[in-house]
Specification:
Chain lengths: 65, 758
């Protein structure tokens, strides 16, 4: 599989613009962009649920830290 | 962070207390720090960095060298910075470790480094936030959001270190970006996903190991094989159960036959036993017959008992009467002899008449004597001297008459003897009379005894006759035999019991014998041994089959349990495998196991760097007059190792991208400046980012050609327009003309001083 840097760059650009402008890009959206960019597919529902759980845990740890 | 006022004492070239009040700049926040070489331009950056972080602005300067060589031993080196950050005002003070003159005595003492951070809320309201060197540094890092290194790369761009962010390798740039943009959370997400995946994997492997061990212990390769084993064992069990039922039936059959034969055998045994008992009873029969005869004899004896006893009693009565008569006869003889003796003795004592007379005479004599005596005594007692004695008439009474004692005694003796004799005579007379009376009575008794004897003899003869009559009628031939049985009469009931028991025993035995004989009639005594042996064999065979059956059932149960455990484990493994699927993919993707070999944190950093580059290029484009633009190098093999954060510069003159290391001194200066400014802008733009209100650039402008210098100045001027304090350190004379607002450093013989020219 050839590296699709154009696609990656687009995803990164979207991310940058979104974060820079709206500053609303969540870690979940960031990862979703990343996942889509590197795997050229969207997160499955099960993966998405697990990711959200992991992020929630991370957030909890951050709150307790 | 925006400096408001910097106070230096005995610091670097500033020997005295030097105050730089940035507030004097007013709205002119773009200024030049200028002065001759060595006057202390960079020392101002050192003082700022030292005040905040306790270290100088450049690597080559150490803290000890911060103390002014001009300072006297009594003067303490100290830097105080008043600064604003996010609408709040703070004051931070620091002193380096230094040698100061002892307060007392000669010599110096080492004073350790000190620091404090205070928030100034009002003129009188100062809140100490931290004290001590390390605590204050930590507090300022938290407050500003970056460490000394980042401060030197973003706020104070000192000589040498100014280009570090541009020239840094990917790894170092990654650290800078991670710190500035606080992207640790993305890294932690990678780790968290990885840990979760590893956890599931480990659990899976552990469970799988257990699963494999269980299979090995079961001696099968898989669950299906174990299921087959269970099925085969269950089939074998069915066959064994059938065999067991057959053997059980066989055993019951043999046992029944054996039981029946045992009963016959026992009947034969009993018959033999009864025969023996019967023989024993037969031996007792004559004895029983004797007892029966004895009973008849006793009964006959008892019939004779009354006449026999009467006869015996009458004979006894005769004997008693005879004895009594003999006794009385003897008594009569004795009484007769006693009478004779009494009579003889009475006679020898005289007659009674003589004695009576003598007693009378004596009594008369005694009476006479007594009367005489009594009269004599009366006369004697009546005699009075001078009076005539009636007897003799003497007037004198020399010897009045008295009774002779002897005469009196004699008389009394005589009288006593006579009375004794009289008494004796009376006694003898009485004895004679008694003997006579006794004789008479005895005679009467003898007569009565004779009569009684006669009567007894007569009665006896009658009784004896009656007995004899009865005896003759009895079966006894001899009286001794009769008496013998009469004596044994008390044993009659015992004999009767013996006979009764015997007869009962005979009857019972007979009944049993009849029954037993009925049971064995027409049968022969069986031999039990072969039957018992057969029963034993059947029992052993059945026991073995039952045992085998039990063992097989246990094996089946155990295998089924194992099957259940293995199935559950398999299910759990499948579950883990299913769980591992998505989490494993997430973790692997996040860690960089993807077609781009890009980790999530690197992806984020790349995105951030792209933002920085976009912003930096806006200025770089102006400064380089459209020649250069920065790009991330995309010629990478493994983004996990190289981070994908390498920089390249696109030279529009050639249309080629090349490494930033190929830039000349001047080019790298303004590229670094653009990058630093871009970084500052992006940092500010991001929510929760840092506020970079100040940028102080140390040197580098000398390397620029006039056109580039213009572009650089213009760029920095634009920054000023954004409200940022921009300071440039340079001794380039040309800059003094371009930047009218200056902080001039004046070098003197006793240290430098400063002056704002606004």
């Amino acid at each position: 599989m050839e590296l699709s840097y154009e696609r990656l760059a687009l995803a990164q650009k979207e991310l940058s613009v979104a974060e820079a402008q709206a500053k609303k890009l969540t870690a979940h959206e960031l990862f979703t962009n990343f996942f889509r960019a590197v795997n050229e597919r969207d997160l499955a529902e099960k993966e998405d649920t697990l990711l959200r759980k992991a992020l929630n845990q991370l957030e909890d740890e951050g709150r307790h830290a | 962070m925006k400096p408001l006022c910097l106070t230096m004492e005995a610091f670097g070239p500033y020997a005295q207390k030097e105050v730089i009040d940035f507030r004097k700049l007013g709205d002119k926040s773009f200024f030049l720090i200028t002065g001759p070489t060595g006057s202390g331009k960079t020392s101002i950056l050192d003082a700022l960095t030292f005040a905040l972080y306790g270290s100088a602005s450049g690597d080559l300067r150490n803290n000890r060298s911060l103390r002014s060589d001009y300072a006297t031993p009594e003067t303490k080196t100290m830097v105080t910075l008043l600064f604003a950050n996010k609408d709040k005002t703070y004051e931070i003070s620091r002193t380096p470790e230094q040698e100061l003159k002892k307060q007392r005595g000669e010599g110096t003492r080492t004073v350790p480094a000190g620091a404090s951070l205070v928030e100034i809320k009002g003129e009188e309201d100062r809140k100490i936030l931290a004290s001590g060197n390390s605590d204050t540094t930590k507090a300022i890092e938290d407050l500003l959001g970056f460490k000394a290194e980042q401060f030197r790369q973003l706020v104070i761009l000192p000589q040498g270190e100014f280009r570090r962010f541009l020239m840094a390798d990917s790894k170092e740039r990654k650290l800078i970006l991670e710190t500035l943009f606080k992207t640790g959370a993305y890294r932690r997400l990678e780790d968290l996903l990885d840990a979760k995946a590893k956890d599931i994997k480990n659990h899976y492997e552990e469970l799988n190991k257990r699963f494999t061990t269980l299979l090995e212990n079961s001696g099968v390769a898989n669950i299906e094989e174990l299921q087959t084993v269970v099925t085969e064992k269950e089939q074998a069990n069915v066959a064994q159960e059938a065999l067991l039922a057959k053997q059980k039936h066989e055993l019951e059959k043999i046992s029944k036959t054996l039981q029946e034969q045992r009963l016959v055998f026992e009947a034969f045994e009993q018959a033999e036993q009864l025969a023996a008992e019967k023989a024993e009873l037969a031996e007792q029969k004559s004895e029983i017959e004797t007892l029966k005869k004895n009973i008849l004899a006793v009964e006959a004896a008892l019939v004779l008992k009354v006449p026999y006893e009467k006869a015996s009693q009458s004979l006894s009565q005769v004997k008693t009467s005879q004895a009594y008569l003999e006794q009385e006869t003897t008594n009569l003889q004795a009484a007769t002899a006693a009478l004779e003796n009494a009579a003889k003795q009475f006679t020898q004592a005289g007659t009674g008449e003589d004695l009576t007379n003598a007693i009378v005479a004596l009594r008369e004599q005694a009476a006479t004597m007594t009367a005489t005596t009594r009269e004599t005594t009366r006369l004697a007692e009546s005699l009075k001297p001078g009076e005539a004695c009636p007897v003799c008439g003497s007037l004198e009474h020399p010897h009045p008459a008295t009774v002779s004692a002897k005469a009196k005694a004699d008389l009394e003796a005589k009288l006593a003897a006579i009375e004794a004799q009289a008494h004796k005579l009376k006694v003898q007379q009485k004895a004679l009379e008694d003997a006579n009376t006794h004789l008479s009575e005895t005679k009467g008794k003898v007569t009565a005894a004779q009569n009684a004897l006669s009567s007894a003899e007569k009665n006896s003869q009658q009784m004896v006759a009656e007995f004899k009559t009865a005896f003759l009628a009895s079966p006894f031939k001899e009286q001794s035999v009769f008496r013998s049985f009469l004596k044994q009469s008390d044993q009659k009931s015992q004999w009767q019991n013996t006979i009764s028991n015997y007869e009962k025993a005979v009857a019972a035995l007979q009944a049993k014998e009849d029954l037993t004989l009925k049971q064995i009639k027409g049968k022969t005594k069986p031999d039990l041994a072969p039957l018992e042996a057969a029963a034993d064999r059947a029992d052993q065979a059945m026991t073995k089959t039952a045992s085998d059956c039990g063992a097989l059932k246990e094996q089946i149960a155990s295998s089924k349990n194992m099957l259940t455990t293995l199935t559950a484990t398999r299910k759990e493994l499948d579950k883990l495998q299913n769980a591992y699927g998505p989490i494993g993919l997430l973790a692997a993707t996040a860690k960089g196991d993807n077609p781009y070999k890009l980790s999530f944190s690197a992806f984020v950093l790349q995105a951030l760097l792209d933002d920085v580059l976009t912003t930096a290029n806006l200025r770089l484009n102006k400064i380089s007059q459209g020649r250069y633009a920065l790009f991330r190098s995309k010629d990478i093999n493994d983004a996990r190792k190289e981070q994908g954060l390498s920089l390249e510069v696109l030279d529009s003159f050639t249309g080629q991208r090349r490494s930033v290391s190929t830039l000349s001194g001047g080019e790298s200066f303004f590229t670094s400046l653009s990058l630093a400014l871009g970084l500052s802008d992006v940092l500010e733009a991001y929510a929760g980012g840092l506020h970079l209100d100040t940028i102080l650039v140390d040197e580098g402008f000398g390397s620029l050609d006039p056109e580039t210098l213009d572009s650089a100045i213009n760029t920095l001027t634009e920054l000023q327009a954004g409200g940022r304090l921009v300071g440039i350190i340079s001794h380039v004379a040309d800059l003094e003309e371009r930047i009218p607002t200056r902080l001039e450093i004046i070098r003197g013989q006793h240290g430098s001083t400063t002056k704002f020219i606004i």
